[in-house]
Every structure is written in C-alpha cells, then in structure tokens.
Structure of Signal recognition particle receptor subunit beta:
Amino acid sequence: MASPSPAPSLLPPAAPWTPWAPGPGSSAAAVSPLVLVALAVGVGTALLVAWRARATRAPRDVVLLAGLCAAGKTALLGKIRDHHVHPTCPSMEVNHYVLTSGSHRGSRGGKAPATATGSSSIDGGLRLVDAPGHAKLRFLTSPYMPRVRRLCFVVDSTRVAQDAHAMAEYLYDLLTHPRLLAASAVSRAGRAAAPVPVVIVCNKQDRLSSQDGRRILSLLEKQLHEIRQTRAASLAGLTAMDTLLPTDGGDGDGDGDGDDGSGNGVGGAGARVLGDMAAPFQFSQLEDRYAVRVVECSAVRDKGDKLLAKLLS
Ligand SMILES: Nc1nc2c(ncn2[C@@H]2O[C@H](COP(=O)(O)OP(=O)(O)O)[C@@H](O)[C@H]2O)c(=O)[nH]1
Ligand SMILES: [Mg+2]
C-alpha cells in the first residue's frame, strides 16, 4: 500500500531561530546613535564637572581695598601704582592694578616691597582691587569675594568718631559675606587652613585730627558688638545657631554657640553672627578664620612701596 504523498508545502521550511547578536559588520550602523549619545552625555558631564571644579578653585589673588567713601582707597591705589595721589571723585566702578614684583619696580627703580608674609608674595601676581564704597555699589565687590586673599579695610582716621557705626556695619557685612566665609571655612579640626588676613588700614594719619590705630580698633570692636546684638536678635527666629566662629575651635564651652567646627554653616543664617556671643566682641574671637591686624598710614605722606608693604604686612 502506497503511503499518502505529503501535502505540498506552500512555504519553505522555516529557518531555525537563533537569537540576534550584532555581527561585526552590522554593529556600527545599529549601535552608533546610542554610543554617540552616551559619549556626548559623558563628555558633557566631564566638561561640566571640570568647569565647576575650576570655578570653585578660583585663584586667591585679590587684595581687596574696601571701606566707606572717601576713606582713601583710590588714593592708596594711585600712590602704589603711579607714586602719586590723583585728584579723585567717588568711584563708580572697580579699579584694578595687577601687582608683580617686576611691574612694581616701576620707572623710578624702586625695589619691590618686601612682603612680610609668605602668603602674600607678589611674585605670583596679586590684584589690588579698589571697590567703590557707596552702599549702592557694593554689590560690584561680590564677584571678587571668592578670590580674596587679603581684605584691607580702609578707614578715614579723622572720621571715626562720626562714622564708626557705618564703618563697622560695612566691615560686618564683609566678614559675614558667604563667599569670604567659604574662603575662610573652618575645617573639622576646628581651624581654617590659613586664616584670611584682614588689615584695618587707618589712613590719613598725616592729619592732626586722626585717631591712632589702637583707638580705631577698639571703637570698631564696640560698634561690631552692638551690630552683632541687633543682627543676632533678628536672626534668632531663623536659626538656633548663635555663632559660626567659636573662640576655642572646639566649641566645647557649652554656651550654645553652636558651631560644629565643620564650616557647613557658611552662607547660612548662623554665619551672619560673628564671634562669641557670650563675650563682648573682640577681633581675637575671629582668629580661626581671620587674622586681623591694624596699620596706620597716609596715602599722601607715605611712599607707594611703603604703603604696599603695609597693606601686605
Ligand atoms: N590728607 C589726606 N588726604 C587723603 C589721604 N588719602 C586720601 N585723601 C583724600 O581723601 C579724599 C578721598 O580719597 P579717595 O581716594 O577718593 O577715597 P575713596 O572713596 O576711598 O576711594 C581725596 O580728596 C583724597 O585726596 C591721606 O592719607 N591724607
Ligand atoms: Mg574711590
């Protein structure tokens, strides 16, 4: 008996199924968009990270001359740069002068001033920045704050009796500026890597009515104490931290001044209160972050080299 013949097949037998795997020839065409996107994202991220790292590692090359109007900031800059005081009017913008030991020798052949502290060597090129003192123009100083290597707060020594409060308010704002606090951030060990030098420059000492540096320092401390009380009271509702700058670094005094030594409060409400609230304000309370000293000078009487040496001392 003949076996029935198989039904005619309409379709060719199906090829055995094999999982798809990119072959060497097809891979470029099939995967390249994905690879390109991944590469673009990777490169973009790397560039962003590098840019941010660069931005946060801004060079600390600015010697900032700040102070009320007519304190003599522009006169000091002119004397240092050009060896004489130009007639001035209130500055409306920031003036710069890049200091290098070469450029400062100048045409008169004067030596570059000896720099008393290694951290202020001018060989790396420091910028002397003269910021406008008018309250409405102080925002122009902000971009320079992350780069501040040294703050020179210039005071008209003949005006302290009248202007001490305004001087201290501006100084308080500078010392609690978030970007300056970041530069002076206290480490977990309770100390800044290197406190930011702050020089109280008591200018116009050629005038008979000028007060001496010690007196000016103590008047500023008194005013800073009052300002701290006022600001602390207004911040009391915002933060339980009373101070960012403990005097003993460890803050183990149990007075509630509240810094954990990490510097994490930079820019926060607690950063707006300076020093140790448990004691009358003194600059020495800031020593973990700021090395405060006072110099006396006259932009009119002193030579440029001498003035610069005082600012950098
Ligand atoms: N007698 C005297 N006058 C000064 C001295 N420094 C600046 N001045 C004068 O004070 C005024 C204000 O100075 P300026 O540099 O414009 O102040 P700024 O607003 O802080 O830049 C100008 O008339 C200067 O000539 C100084 O040491 N002694
Ligand atoms: Mg000026």
